[in-house]
Amino acid sequence: MLAVPAGVFLVRLFMIQHDCGHGSFFARQWMNDWVGRALGVLTMTPYDFWRRTHAIHHATSGNLDKRGIGDVNTLTLREYNALTAWGRLKYRTYRHPIVMFGIGPAYLFLLQHRLPVGLMVNAGWTPWISTQATNAAVAIIAAGLIWLIGVQAFFLVHLPIILIAATIGVWLFYVQHQFEDTFWSRQSGWSFHEAALQGSSYYDLPGVLRWLTANIGIHHVHHMSARIPYYRLGDVLRDNPALKNVSRLTLMESLRCVRLALWDEDQLKMISFREAKSLPAAA
Predict the structure, then answer these.
(1) What is the pLDDT of residue 281?
(2) Where are the domains of the chain?
(3) What is the mean pLDDT of the chain?
């Protein structure tokens, strides 16, 4: 039972690490970096590697011509229709809720963050140094805990905490960009400001959940200016009430985002596989 609150607390720690990655939690960059690296050991997220991929996400969010790093893989309806039967099966499997919010988070935090094979091939040794330094620190802490409480107790307690936190984190990231009226565009029509405001949701959570997730639901403001620390995002909404009606998504509304899987370039909205089936093949 303790795994759930511990997992949620780990999510909050990740949000602080997230602000450190943007250089917004502390005034001095060196403090952001070293606190971020320390928290990265607890969240099992290599800080320097993640910071770089996340910066790319902010710079390319909503750009159909620059997909692939730091985002949820998203195909357009035309791209999906052009796939072979095997290609469609793979994409539908990737988009299945069990994979997206169950297997996927476990793979991301337990495997992909341990070995960044094939990611950022032009980034030199930075991804490997970041991940292996984090891995070494994780291994030292894990060995100490196993020595104190035993292998079985360690995995029965620590593994569920990591998996719960990972699932919550992936869910938050998903609904922040994968909602029906989000923004996607080709490079020629892409705008940073439009992608930030229209392509990032205002996830209007209840007060307790807002605190536990460190205001990350105010994501449209965060994408407009990533240097605003999480503890100031609420102030921005208070001072600019019009932003409360931009890309707003309630907790109940967010549940319907699970079915969305394809970007329809004709209707300019995310649609489900069932909706895609009902549309003419030429679309």
Answers:
(1) 59
(2) 3-278
(3) 91
